[in-house]
Amino acid sequence: MIGEVNFKSAPLVGLLLVMVLAPLASADTSESDLELRIDFAAPDNDLYYSDTSDLEVTIRIKNHANQARELVYNPACPFDLIISGDAWLMNLDEQRICPEQSRAMSIQPGQERILSTWVWDWGNAPSGELDFAFSQKDVNLEIVDSLVLQRNVEMPENLKLDAVLAETLGEQNGHTTSMPAMIYLSLSNLGSDTIALPFDSKCRVQTTVLTDLNCGSGEIGPGEKLALGWLSWDFVGTEDGEVLVPISLSGVVDSGTQIETSYMHTPTDDMSQLIPSVTIDNEETLEWHFTLDNTAEVPAKLVFEDACITEVHVIAPNGEIVHDSRDVRFCPDTGVEQKIAPLTTYTVMSDQWDYIGSNGCEIGDGMHLLVVTQPDHDIVAAQSFMHENSGADPACGLDQQDRSPLQLRIDNLVVLNADDLNERIAFEVTIANTGAEEFEFYWPTDCALQLELALVGEESERIWYEGCEGLAGQRSTINSLQSYTWPSLMVPFTVNGEELAHGNWQISIETTSLPTFRTQLAHTYDGVFLQEIVEEELEQEDTEEVAVTTQELVEPLIVEGGWNYVTTSTQGCWLLTDSIGTEHSFVAHMQDGGWTPQPGLRGSYVVETSKAASACSTWSGIVILETLDETETAPQINKPIEPATPENTPIDQIVELAPATVSVVATTSLSIVGLLYLGNTEWIRISALQVGIGLIGMVRKNGEHDGEYQRGRIMGYLTANPGVHFRALLGALSMSNGQLTHHLKHLESEERIWRRKDGRLVRFYPSSIQPNLDEDELPIPLLTPDPNSLQGKILRLLDATENDIVNLSQKELAVRLEASQQLISHHLRTLEKFGLVEREKVGMRYRYQLTREAIFLVNSNEYDISTE
């Protein structure tokens, strides 16, 4: 019975199990047909997300079943989310409240419906990769996705991202498909304070992709650099031509820079199945291994055309190729074939290098790049390495640098307490790099300047050294267009209360570096003076001489004006009325003892004040030292007004005319008798006729042609020397003042010449030159001073002292030529105006030298001037 019962009940038990499990099987099928999907809004730069904008997420449900599905869920909390990063986690349930609510959503077959949207402000999430685990517990759906967040920071002030493009490998100009651009990146501190880098550990160097190079960490001292590393730019998707490679730090505002290069697409072997790599062992020598990894399931075939299977280059941080294996190898043709088995790694070449560059010197410090290429198949692999120079030959190769852009110069030279017991000079020494490349120095000892003080041509008086501040280390570099200035240096000319010898002192300055740079300066020390002329630059004038005296001296003056003659009760006086109306009484002319003023004469004169004699002492007297310029104008003579006289009576007129009438009648009668006698004497008549004809011819010649002849001379000279002044015409044509004035007026009245005032001078021009020209457009003739004049002596003296260490100053010229400094100053300005001398300020004095035109002028004239 038991057995029967049991047998008959088995189908019932099976049916019961089917009824119980059928709903469960139906639920599993329903859930597996639904898919949870999430969509992140794309980042602004397509590389990573930034905390400058919120994250927007859309959560969707898709029905893959053939029938509609219904989802019942809580709309207040439609999904669950856990976000995790490095040592960081956020559970959305801990930050929200989920009230009990219910909503049903029907999803048709193949339909995708939005479950919810979510916006997140990133909270306190760190930079880096974040994992988002979304789930929908009502239907047991889950999905995990990730993204990269980069927190934004500001680029610190004075911190700069530097990018250096390496030299191209091979003979091509620019880059090709087979040769990527190698770029060295570093951070530079351009300021004077240490910079603490604010970048987090997830910050990366970015181009159009995020690279593996970190943005750097720690601190960078003033003027220091931090190497970030090398990156390779492969020009994928780039068109031929000029290319700008953008480079920046991820999430760092205002950190961008760029590299400009050129690119040309070239055909290459399709060896995408081979992955090249180079590994290095950086010890006493650089050992490297170049391998190819065949990732395909078929063999790879390589053919090497010559024995040099690989080429090796080492690139320094400045982008320069410091080692090129092609320079030292012989590569005969071989045609060797090599097969690489599927899914295997093949070592193409292993070698070592001793860090000695192409210049025969050990490479410098810094991060270098080893580039190994297989030229037959355009395969390239690179690996960076750090190297620290051993210091075995520290100055190696420095002498091979181009020294021409380097300048060691003297700046801000001043003379302090001139002509005093404490006279000294102060100056700065600067070494500047004006070239496009950096320049490297080696200092065998500490960085310093060596200074040597000596009289010209004598033994050294003193040798001393001045150290460098802020230029530490035995090796230093001055970058392109940068300079270094030593602290201000002081050289006294009184030591322990005793003066140094008077004369021209020379200070020789040189660096103690390799290579060495030198410069010199000179100073004339002439002891203590009671009188000193100091030239200062003022805002109102270019230069002005200020006389500092300890006693009252009579200094020459320059006066311009016209002459007039006045009478007093006892005598007449010649007065010079200047431009402000002051009258000066003429005493004497020291340059020309026979000179006297004339009515209508105007001029410029160097004078000294003096006491006028007797009645003329009413006016201040002047003694003329030199005539600078004179012009003569015809004085206007006013006809005197005669007093009225009573009319004569007829009798009075007869009485007055009687003597004259008798004389005329008698003279006429005698003349007629004499002429009748001469006319009747033949030999007298013929001789007189010949003499008379000759006299008439001479009178006609002088009267009609002499004026034209002289005016022709004037016109010829003005045509050859337009703009010459009256005094120069007077000397060149050997005319008197009155004669030249007369002819000039005649030519002006005929409009054949015209004049223009130029300061104290009046310049004359032929009518062939337009009078309406601007001052700068008018020609000025070359000044040709008389060799025996003071101007001529100045030129000759400057020519004689041309090879001296220092040029002469105004004061020294005055002493040598025994003239006043004011007079020398006037002539120097005139010579400078005409381009015959030029000046240079040395300390507090101007020193003068001849121009090229003056040297030619002096050498073409015979000067007989003593230079003692």
As a percent range, the share of helical residues equals 10-25%
Number of helices: 9
Q: What gyration radius follows from the Cα positions, in whole Å? A: 52 Å
Return the average pLDDT rounded to an integer: 79
The largest beta-sheet arranges its strands as 2-10-9-5-6
Shape: elongated
Low-confidence runs of at least 5 consecutive residues = 1-30, 530-554, 634-645, 699-704, 861-868
How large is the share of residues in beta strands? 35-45%
Major sheet description: 5 strands, mixed
Distance between the termini: 160 Å
| CATH fold assignment of the largest domain | Immunoglobulin-like
Overall number of domains: 7
Walk me through what this model shows.
The chain contains nine helices and 56 strands. Strand 42 and strand 43 form a beta hairpin. The strands form 18 sheets. Strands 2-10-9-5-6 form a five-stranded mixed sheet, with no helix packed on it. The protein starts with a helix and ends in a 9-residue tail after the last helix. The longest helix is centred in the last third of the chain and has 39 residues, at 682-720. It folds into seven domains: 1-29; 33-151, Intracellular proteinase inhibitor BsuPI (Immunoglobulin-like, Sandwich); 154-387, Intracellular proteinase inhibitor BsuPI (Immunoglobulin-like, Sandwich); 398-525, Immunoglobulin-like (Sandwich), CATH 2.60.40.2360; 557-632, OB fold (Dihydrolipoamide Acetyltransferase, E2P), CATH 2.40.50; 670-781, Orthogonal Bundle (Arc Repressor Mutant, subunit A); 790-859, Arc Repressor Mutant, subunit A (Orthogonal Bundle). The model is unreliable at 1-30, 530-554, 634-645, 699-704 and 861-868 (pLDDT under 50). It is elongated and about 170 Å long. With 868 residues, it is α+β, with helices and mostly antiparallel strands.
